[in-house]
Amino acid sequence: MINKEQINTFIQEAHRFGDEKLMLCSSGNLSWRVGSEAIVSGTGSWLPRISEEKIAICNIATGERLEGVRPSMESSFHLGILRERPDVNVVLHFQSEYATAVSCMKNKPINFNVTAEIPCHVGREIPIVPYYRPGSPELAKAVTEAMKEHNSILLTNHGQVVCGKDFDQTFERATFFEMACRIIIQSGGDYSVLTEQEIDDLEVYVLGKTAK
């Protein structure tokens, strides 16, 4: 059973994402795995000032709402990601200023690796999902599929989704994602990216992984 302390933690973290201006009003949604259940922000709720009355508790396996208000219209892909990714406990859909501007560009960048933080934390590759109506089954399916092997994705004319093992990792991915997009836009498109060898070196010498 999800307890009061866990609900308060969820609320505090939602406010932290809002304080960083990762979303405006009701434009974002958040979920957190707690055992076999998930705390999910309610439909139409404002993460920057969400309260207990705007929270839903859902069964991850079935998607059934167990307690609280109706979950976010995007809860299908939140729960889908949690089902497909046992290593993930937090999912955030957000619409930060620069990353959302990039999502609306006609000619979107195919490489976001402008600084070392991007391949190290956001993802060496960031898939771009075509536009689907918010809350639609098509969007839920596309997002869940894209997030099977990625931790961050861009939604065309919509926003972004990131996930992580905890709130801190998710927050880090979201803020560095926004940083990369700010660099891309403020450079006027005249920016450089890390080479494949430079990224391999980061994975070996910074992250301690075997180079791809």
TrEMBL record:
Key words of the record: Lyase, Metal-binding
A UniProt-annotated Pfam family: Aldolase_II
Regions crossing the membrane: none
InterPro entries per the UniProt record, alphabetical: Aldolase_class_II_sugar_metab (IPR050197), Aldolase_II/adducin_N (IPR001303), Aldolase_II/adducin_N_sf (IPR036409)
The keyword Protein biosynthesis is assigned to this record: no
Keyword Cell membrane annotated: no
Protein name (Swiss-Prot/TrEMBL): Aldolase
Recorded coiled-coil stretches: none
Class II aldolase/adducin N-terminal domain boundaries: 8-185
